[in-house]
């Protein structure tokens, strides 16, 4: 690109918009389904179709373990995967702040390319808007994905059953912890990188192991704790969590200790919560441990009939206590 | 944790608590972190009927009066000051709004881990005026003082404290009749030492200093029950790995050098003479109230809120009409519902 | 009140200490504690090391148990 | 809603996020296909499928003739319509600034509901992010639409043919002019309202009149002028424009006169450019004039073999001159 | 337009132009709007070989030197001043960047329709410093003066002008040899009247004042060709509905009261003595250069750019090596490619 | 240079005039023109009415044509 930064002219719909699209986006996203027209023309999925959208506004846009581009693909691909759907097509809409470095935009596009390839999804259509300086912070990306629901598996937040084992596919809270350390200036140094990863391959492997699955959910915003409460509510079941079994990286624990935060409420971007009948649990974990992003998969609890809508934990002294419900903004606390 | 021997001992503490059949006893956990841990560990469920646990005024957020939030918002919105604060204060309702509400209106509210970070921010942003909201008890006050010292050394004229620090001894006096045994706040005692608590024994006030791990807390409770059955006033330091008889001389001297006692309003307990701290006149350039001529605020708590009674152990959170209805951690009406340590919040979250 | 964190001192220099909790490191004030040395355990609150402690865990509680219970 | 404004907690993924979604979005968007899960499960379109995405960052969010909600539905529905596709499903992702008035958000959601109904499209999935004060200006919406391409009609920007008539479905530039007057403080009073409208009904009517259509394009960002240049390029044809035949509201002309702007480059949000063989033109215009948003449809030029890639206009003195190529940012000029 | 009679006449003007077979003649359109309209109307295509149209220095944006942009950027980025400007200037390249580039870096750049709006903005934003970029010729200068008067009446101390206004007579002198006939800028003459142009006839310089509609422009060109064939110096006011012999006394007096002549740099023509304007000392509080002590800028135009030659009619835009390659309206290298009126831009857009 | 707009005066008050061009109205300075009245046509530039004109269109050109051509 001749321009070193994104200018208002790049968003005006004329020549420079085309230049930006051609030289940055098309250069990275090219595939047979990508369109320059108003809409992509595609072969629809066979059977049932899953559709999901998410907006990504992570600040900073670049962080250890990824950037907003990688995240924007993973987020939507994972939402499709959680419905048992193979991701086929993806659209992306950019809102870019005037003055954003072109080099950074290329880096974002390149991460999207790589991640989309890994996930096997085609980027089919896009949109680029440029917002005036200060009207937006850096770059926002919204992706929408279309997937083909695989035959034989039906999963959903309302399908958890008492007796299900609860599996988490790896150590939790790394993405949230990474962003917290990057964003706020808490002066904490810790070797933590985002867990951001595309998980269709992981879900596929699990589905190939057994069709006997009830819930697959990616623990993003709000973390594993929020997902557990959501499912307890949707399925009207209780959840018993074995707090000691939840994998947490020591550094993440240390950061949480300093800031008074609960790791269960830190966002992940590459972790699934899976619920399946207890008898399948060992096989699923074994499969997961062979996949690239779930070597530390663990069984962390079970679904129970008691305490519907609630998440109870066994404590260190052998009593049971509720996991506090998901609150609002994560606020580091002193007392 | 882990070796069989201590596992045995732990069971013993639990057994003592569960099987207590001595006289009726009211134990007040003074410290908010204790309140929180007691709920988190489900300890209340273990207690036999004659043991009543009362949540005392030990959460700095909970006892901070509405007017303090109003002062902070005044600084942020009227004076354009950048407010640095611990995260806990952000959602506490003021008369008209919380700091989060002020932020929506464009106020600059920064959450910090330490007052030292607020001072550092001021140093790095000479074009901004920065005020740290200094709340907390003996444990926290030294950190605020150190930040002011640093600001002076760095020659800053854009850093100040809005001080609402409080001291515990006067509160113990005020609460004397409310409980049979105090579970003293371990980290306050780390600074103050244990002499005052020992002295209180002579006035007939019993207590134990408790630590914060599950074992420490259970042990302290068990010790309290065992000692209580003996029938005479007692004091035991159950947190010896951190708390000494003298406490931290350095911290005491630092605070004494920079701050002086003043009357202070406690939410629920009202004005308690000499229970608060303010910067000494030599440090008045760092006192936000003086620097910005903050007008006197008549904070108006929501009339439905019974935080005051809750904090004195006069009622349970569930006795408040709006508890769990209008007032939830998502939409707190009173301070006790905000902090994870507030009694109302703990009741709501864990039951 | 006053969330405390026990952590290990890994570095000392002129009024400040770098402490480590599970690999998370941060600089805190050591002005309230004389003679801190790397390897010591401290209780940290609001960016200040407020007390030196004998051990990072609560094993001392054993003695209390023996003494009182 | 209990809250009068949108708070950070509404974006944290917990209870308050659910409250916001239930009370504002679900309340307005409810339909059989709307999901609360990670992805909507849908019956795919039959035949070929059209997919389009667009981000909407209009400032101000409320303007005479509509708001960002209405716009975000029209924009995507119209892009689908321009491919000859019946809009079936739509997703929407919101990025909302902390402190945004809840009442305004409701107004936006209500406009979306109404417009989606009119367009016959189901909102199937959404996303809500809250950005910190100043991190975003008010509210941004990204919509993605899925449509079913109707049999028998193939249109595309590369299909214009010499001899085609060029039709515009109404007076041009009203949306751009409206926003300009609202946004910049130029002190100009003019009774101009946005032309923002959902046009699937219009396209359907045209397609029912004739299948002999080559190009349908909505003249949004960049206006009719930009669309003409785009198509001239894509189809490698020339375009002869009869400047006098282009319908422009006198007030829009007046505003353009004051600010030195060219109405052909002002955005529309409810106008189509249609290219079809000359012999179909009269029928198409007749049909259009009966539709609610195209009473002033007019033939404004023709596609020619000469001057490929260019747009030439007949001038008042009978000469021919090029329409200046679309430039960057629209800048009111004094000289 | 419309009635058959005038349609006939219009054809006549066109016929005269198309069928001109008199001596070779060089006509310079002084005014950028004329350049633009001549291109827009495709008039060049009608001209027989002996008629050459030269684009003169009549676009205020084009003749404004690089250093002026640098001064404006200095005010915006170094002094935090809010810049109000006509839209045309926003994309003109300075030495390092344009105002659009400065805006990307956080500069506050507002596009206004009128200097009066800039003054109004300053009045409504007392906490901001506001500077209007005052460029243009006789037509535009009064508007800037009126805004300063208003600012004085409103008692503003946050409004100023960065002045680069220029006057035409000195340019006519400098360009005397470059053309046989001047197409005088109608709106400049609306202010100045026609006496100077008449006087130039006596020095052998011919010209017509032209209006801006298609008919006005064609008629003026036809008149010029007819008169030129007569072989002696001539002047015709072909824009009588707007231009009078005296012009606007009020405007002349206003500008004379507030501004005084100074030497001024014209891009392409270089420094022309007494061809510029500056605020008189009585108004120095409103002079941004004085108010903010703007250092002297040595603006460096891109060395490839031949704007200077283009503006003097010494070469055509297409003779510039980077024309249409490195230099396009999307990525202008010189000022002549920025404004819709710039000769390079007009050549690029319309051919 | 100097884009001019001919417009009709629709209101006059104390140094300012409201002008109308095709229904687009804006306040401009009338300080340079004495005796403006509603109904007059003016040439407007940069928010200032710089000249009174005899008519909004260029019909006067006819006379020039007759005279010179
Ligand atoms: S429930 Fe809420 S309103 Fe009631 S006492 Fe507790 S904090 Fe106050
Ligand atoms: S083409 Fe560009 S660089 Fe060349 S003279 Fe014109 S403006 Fe200057
Ligand atoms: Mg989603
Ligand atoms: Mg998601
Ligand atoms: Mg999800
Ligand atoms: Mg688009
Ligand atoms: Mg960092
Ligand atoms: Mg689209
Ligand atoms: Mg579109
Ligand atoms: Mg379109
Ligand atoms: Mg989502
Ligand atoms: Mg308006």
Automatic annotation (TrEMBL), chains A, D:
Pfam families: AIRS, AIRS_C. Residues 37-149 form the PurM-like N-terminal domain. InterPro entries: HypE (IPR011854), PurM-like_C_dom (IPR010918), PurM-like_C_sf (IPR036676), PurM-like_N (IPR016188), PurM-like_N_sf (IPR036921). SUPFAM superfamilies: PurM C-terminal domain-like, PurM N-terminal domain-like. Residues 161-312 form the PurM-like C-terminal domain. Belongs to the HypE family. This is Hydrogenase expression/formation protein HypE.
From TrEMBL, chains B, E:
Signal peptide: none annotated. InterPro entries: Hyd_form_HypD (IPR002780), HypD_1 (IPR042243), HypD_2_sf (IPR042244). Pfam families: HypD. The keyword Iron applies. Keywords: Iron, Metal-binding. PANTHER family: HYDROGENASE MATURATION FACTOR HYPD, HYDROGENASE PROTEIN ASSEMBLY PROTEIN HYPD. Belongs to the HypD family. This is Hydrogenase formation protein HypD. The gene is hypD.
From TrEMBL, chains C, F:
It holds the Pfam family HupF_HypC. GO terms for molecular function: carbon dioxide binding; iron ion binding. InterPro entries: Hydrogenase_HupF/HypC. GO terms for biological process: protein maturation. It comes from the Bacteria. Belongs to the HupF/HypC family. PANTHER family: HYDROGENASE MATURATION FACTOR HYBG. This is Hydrogenase assembly chaperone HypC/HupF. It comes from Eubacterium ramulus ATCC 29099. The lineage of its organism: Bacteria, Bacillati, Bacillota, Clostridia, Eubacteriales.
């Amino acid at each position: 690109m001749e321009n070193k930064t994104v200018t208002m002219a790049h968003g005006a719909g004329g020549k420079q918009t085309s230049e930006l699209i051609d030289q940055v986006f098309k250069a990275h996203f090219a595939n047979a389904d990508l369109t320059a027209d108003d809409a992509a023309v595609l072969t629809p999925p066979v059977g049932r179709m899953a559709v999901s959208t998410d907006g990504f506004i992570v600040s900073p846009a670049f962080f250890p373990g990824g950037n907003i581009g990688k995240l924007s693909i993973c987020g939507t691909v994972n939402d499709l995967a959680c419905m048992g759907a193979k991701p086929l097509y993806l659209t992306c809409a950019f809102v870019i702040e005037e003055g954003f470095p072109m080099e950074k935009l290329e880096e974002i596009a390149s991460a999207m390319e790589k991640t989309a390839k890994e996930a096997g999804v085609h980027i089919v259509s896009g949109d680029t808007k440029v917002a005036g300086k200060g009207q937006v912070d850096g770059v926002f990306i919204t992706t929408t994905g279309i997937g083909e629901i695989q035959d034989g598996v039906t999963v959903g937040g309302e399908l958890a059953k008492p007796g299900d084992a609860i599996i988490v596919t790896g150590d939790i809270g790394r993405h949230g912890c990474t962003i917290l350390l990057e964003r706020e200036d808490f002066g904490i140094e810790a070797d933590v990188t985002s867990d951001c990863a595309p998980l269709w391959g992981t879900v596929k492997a699990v589905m190939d192991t057994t069709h006997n699955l009830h819930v697959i959910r990616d623990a993003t915003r709000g973390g594993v704790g929020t997902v557990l409460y959501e499912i307890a509510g949707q399925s009207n079941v209780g959840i018993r969590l074995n707090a000691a079994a939840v994998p947490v990286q020591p550094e993440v624990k240390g950061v949480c200790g300093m800031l008074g935060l609960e790791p269960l409420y830190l966002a992940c971007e590459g972790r699934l919560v899976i619920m399946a009948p207890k008898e399948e649990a060992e096989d699923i974990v074994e499969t997961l441990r062979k996949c690239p992003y779930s070597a530390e998969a663990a069984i962390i609890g079970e679904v129970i009939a008691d305490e519907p809508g609630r998440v109870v934990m066994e404590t260190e002294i052998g009593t049971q206590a509720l996991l506090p419900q998901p609150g609002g903004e994560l606020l580091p606390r002193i007392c | 944790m882990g070796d069989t021997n201590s596992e045995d001992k732990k069971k013993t503490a639990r057994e003592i608590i569960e099987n207590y059949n001595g006289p009726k006893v009211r134990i007040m956990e003074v410290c908010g972190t204790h309140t929180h841990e007691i709920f988190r560990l489900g300890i209340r469920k273990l207690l036999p009927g004659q043991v009543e646990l009362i949540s005392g005024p030990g959460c700095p957020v909970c006892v901070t009066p509405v007017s303090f939030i109003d002062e902070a918002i005044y600084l942020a919105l009227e004076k354009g000051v950048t407010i640095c604060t611990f995260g806990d204060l952000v959602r506490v309702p003021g008369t008209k709004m919380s700091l989060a509400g002020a932020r929506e209106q464009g106020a600059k509210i920064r959450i910090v881990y330490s007052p030292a970070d607020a001072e550092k921010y001021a140093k790095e942003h000479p074009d901004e005026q920065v005020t740290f909201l200094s709340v907390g008890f003996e444990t926290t006050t030294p950190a605020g003082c150190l930040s002011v010292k640093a600001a002076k050394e760095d020659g800053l004229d854009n850093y100040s404290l809005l001080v609402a620090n409080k001291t515990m001894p006067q509160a113990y006096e005020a609460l004397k009749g409310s409980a049979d045994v105090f579970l003293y706040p371990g980290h306050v005692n780390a600074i103050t030492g244990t002499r005052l608590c020992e002295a209180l024994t002579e006035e007939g006030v019993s207590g134990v200093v408790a630590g914060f791990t599950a074992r420490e807390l259970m042990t302290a409770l068990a010790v309290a029950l065992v000692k209580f059955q003996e029938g005479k006033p007692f004091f035991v330091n159950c947190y010896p790995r951190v708390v000494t008889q003298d406490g931290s001389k350095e911290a005491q001297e630092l605070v004494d050098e920079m701050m002086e006692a003043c009357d202070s309003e406690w939410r629920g307990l009202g004005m308690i003479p000499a229970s608060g701290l303010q910067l000494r006149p030599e440090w008045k350039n760092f006192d936000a109230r003086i620097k910005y001529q903050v007008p006197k605020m008549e904070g108006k708590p929501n009339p439905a809120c019974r935080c005051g009674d809750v904090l004195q152990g006069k009622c349970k959170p569930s006795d408040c009409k709006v508890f769990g209805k209008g007032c939830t951690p998502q939409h707190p009406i009173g301070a006790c519902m905000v902090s994870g340590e507030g009694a109302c919040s703990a009741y709501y979250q864990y039951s | 009140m006053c969330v405390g964190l026990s952590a290990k001192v890994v570095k000392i220099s002129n009024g400040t200490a770098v402490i480590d909790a599970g690999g998370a490191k941060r600089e805190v004030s050591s002005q309230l504690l004389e003679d801190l040395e790397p390897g010591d355990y401290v209780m940290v609150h609001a960016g200040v090391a407020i007390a030196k402690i004998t051990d990072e865990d609560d094993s001392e509680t054993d003695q209390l148990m023996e003494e009182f219970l």
